[in-house]
Every structure is written in C-alpha cells, then in structure tokens.
Amino acid sequence: MDGSSSKVVELKPHGDVAEEDPARRGGPGTDEADDNEKAPRRSRRVASLDVFRGLTVALMILVDGAGGEWPVIGHAPWNGCNLADFVMPFFLFIVGMAIPLSLKRIPDRGRAVRRVVIRTLKLLFWGILLQGRYSHAPDELTYGVDMKHVRWGGILQRIALAYLVVAVLEIVTKDAKIQDQSSSGFSIFRMYLSQWIVACCILVIYLALVYGIYVPDWEFRVRNVDSPNYGKVLTVTCGTRGILDPPCNAVGYIDRKVLGINHMYQKPAWRRHRACTDDSPHEGHFRNDAPAWCVAPFEPEGILSSLSAVLSTIIGVHYGHVLVHMKSHTDRLRQWVTMGICLLVLGIILHFSHAIPLNKQLYTFSYICVTAGAAGVVFSVLYFLVDIVSLRYVFAPLQWIGMNAMLVYVMAAEGIFEGFLNGWYYEGTNNTLVYWVRKHVFVKVWHSTRVGILLYVLFAQILFWSLVSGVLHRAGLYWKL
C-alpha cells in the first residue's frame, strides 16, 4: 500500500498499474457531469481499462490453448499478423496507459522510482520462474531447470523492461505544473514533447541496429531429442546486413551474442515457416530440404525487439495523458480514434509497400503502428460502451478477469492450475483428469478435435476463470504485486 490511507494503488499483472483499489474506484474525470459539481467529487475507476486488460488475458488463453489447432489465431510463422500477435502489444499499451493514472498522485519522485523498481523486480522474478523453464506445467509433472539453459527472455520480462523505462521517463519528465491542467487538440503532444523525443531516439537506434549490423555465419547444437540431427552442430550461412529474414537478422544476432544461444526460446514460431514444413502454417514434420535454422532457437522477446517494444508502451502513455487532461468524452474519443486510425494506416502502408514488413518476432515499426493503432481503436470502443453507455454488466466477466489478471495469467495462461489437475491421473500420466474432460466432454461430443479444443478453452478455461475472478471480486480478494 502506498500513499494516504484513502487509496490503495496496485500493480496489475504484466506491469500495468490501476488507479485505485477496486473498493474505491479512482479515475480522473470519467463523468463529464462531475466537472461542474462544487462539492468534492468521488472519482471512479475507468472500467474499460479493466475490461481491456481482461480481454487481452482472455485472448492470450485462447491463442495459447487453441492456436495449435487454429493457426489463423496463432502466431504468424514470420511476417504477418495473426490474432495472437496482438496480445503482447495490447499488454504493453495497457501498461503505458495506466502509468500516468498511477503516478499522478505521487509527487515525490524518489518514492515513485522506488515503487517502480520494486515492482519491476517482482515482474522479472515471476517471468523467469514461469517462462525460464523452471515450471513444466501443465504437460509435465516435474519442475526445475538447468541454469545452463534457463531462458532469460519472456512476456513478463519484456513488460518489466518497458514498464521500468517508461515509468521512469514519466517520473523524470513530468512537470507538476501541468499535471492538473486541461488540454485539447494537439497541445497535449507539446506538454509531453520530451517523451516523444525519447521515443524517436529509440526508433532511430532500433532501425540503425537492425539495418546496420553485420550478421556473420553462426552455428548451434541441435537440442531437440526428436530431431534426426540431435547433438549435431549445424551452421547457418549469413554474411550480410540489413536482412529481415529468419536466419540472418540483427535481432537474433544480438540475442545470440548477449543472452547466449542456450538461453533463448527453443521452439520459435518460425518452425511453421513454409521453408521448414509443407504443413505451414500448421506445425508438422520438417521438409527433407529444410534449412538448418528451422531447428535453431530464436528469442521472440529478445533485447533489440524489447527496445522497440517500449514504443508501444509510450503510445499507451499518451492515451493515459489524454484521459488525465481531457475532461470531455467527445474530446478523448476524437483524440484516441484519430491517432489509432492514423497508426493503423501508416503500418499497413509500410507493410504492403514492402518497406517494413509486419513482424512480431522482430517487433518492426510497421508492427508497432498496426498493433498500437488497433489497441487504441479497441480501447476507444470499450470506453464508449463501458464508461459512456454503461454496458458494464455485458462486459462484467472480462472486467473481473482484468481486476485479477495476475491470478488468471499464472493459473490459466501459464497452466499452473491445469498442471495441478494433471497430477490426478488413472493408470498412466497420459490419462489425466484434464485429458479426460477435454476428450469426453468436448471433443467426443462435437466429433471434432478442432472444435472440441476451442470450446474447451472458451468454457473450461476462460469462462471458468472469469467466474472465479467474479467470486474473488465479490470477496474483495486480488493478487497484487
């Protein structure tokens, strides 16, 4: 708990910070009628931000659980943008949008920085624990990792980095004189011009490294025991610069040099690339003439791509500034929708003109524009429906997930609860409780593995955890960082 006794500021999962404890809904100017009240007004929480967070967690569960059977919602093998590729940018956008709301009431910069650093360390701890291969849930009933092969990158690690950089930037650059000022039009860009200058510097550094670094030939040892090349050392021929193809890009080169190839993700999405398998975009047996890089590791949450990912968070911060400084619903929506559409159009033009392809693995500039623009438009729609039209009951399940997102992320998206259930099996570990429910309650009823798994994810995971979150919300119980 920070600050006065009247507020409880909490860090929601993935590094984003909500305005207040759910028992005391906080939020600047969510009701235009309140602006004319003479008595001290009781601010309300921006419910649409919780709904958007819950929607993003639900999307993560959906694409992780059903993406294998439905490639159209799974990650694109390389260039392109499927449904799963919007999840990470949406989280970063939400993180950024919540930062101005949470730091607005903390005038002491030292105290604010301490809080940001502590929460960053917590996110890093959970990220390495859940995605560093220590946890083997839900499929394997074991745990532990050889430190020689621990994965340093991951979703929470990337969000921790973006949160740390952008939150400290907000603390350092914010001016107490403008915190309570109203704004309209493009003046809000001038108020935070220094942050946009930093964003431009990050973009220039990223582009300079991606297109300027020379990538030499490299080699790796095959660690997949199912591969006929297991244990062999394979060589990937590059000797080039400025290439955005899978084997010879600067993003992977920096990660191999800094993180070490043993500490990178061992099953990247590029394994489903058409150069690797005839079943693309499905995962299948590798082609006989598949290049060596098809079985090589690649870190989708690596160093250079995480640097550009900071830009998604900075765009989210701008949306948070609009929420803080603009008191009219119409002004807010005009600003948000205009910026969102402009970003979408710019990203699409860059991709289809073949200037900069959409690529989640490299976190390219066109990918930033399209996903941040989509986040802005989606949030604007939710803000209109939830905070203006007040259709909160319709979106209540997503709001419950959003208010207890860390719990749902760990238990559902990371499979900890399902791993616990898999501990109950009959005769063999391949006949677990989860397997029985999925097979007999969903797959056999619909006579389709694809449909059965999709329904299992929707009902036995997303709907189930929304109800659990609702019960915990009624009890006032939340997982805080």
From TrEMBL:
InterPro entries xref list: HGSNAT_cat
Region (Disordered): 1-42
Transmembrane segments annotated in the record for this chain: 46-66, 86-104, 116-135, 155-172, 193-214, 303-324, 336-356, 362-386, 393-412, 453-472
Residue ranges with Basic and acidic residues bias: 9-24
Highest rank taxon of the organism: Eukaryota
Domain Heparan-alpha-glucosaminide N-acetyltransferase catalytic: 45-169
Presence of keyword Mitochondrion: no
Any Pfam family: HGSNAT_cat
Statement: the UniProt record of this protein carries the keyword Nuclease: no
Keyword list, A-Z: Membrane, Transmembrane, Transmembrane helix
Protein name: Heparan-alpha-glucosaminide N-acetyltransferase catalytic domain-containing protein
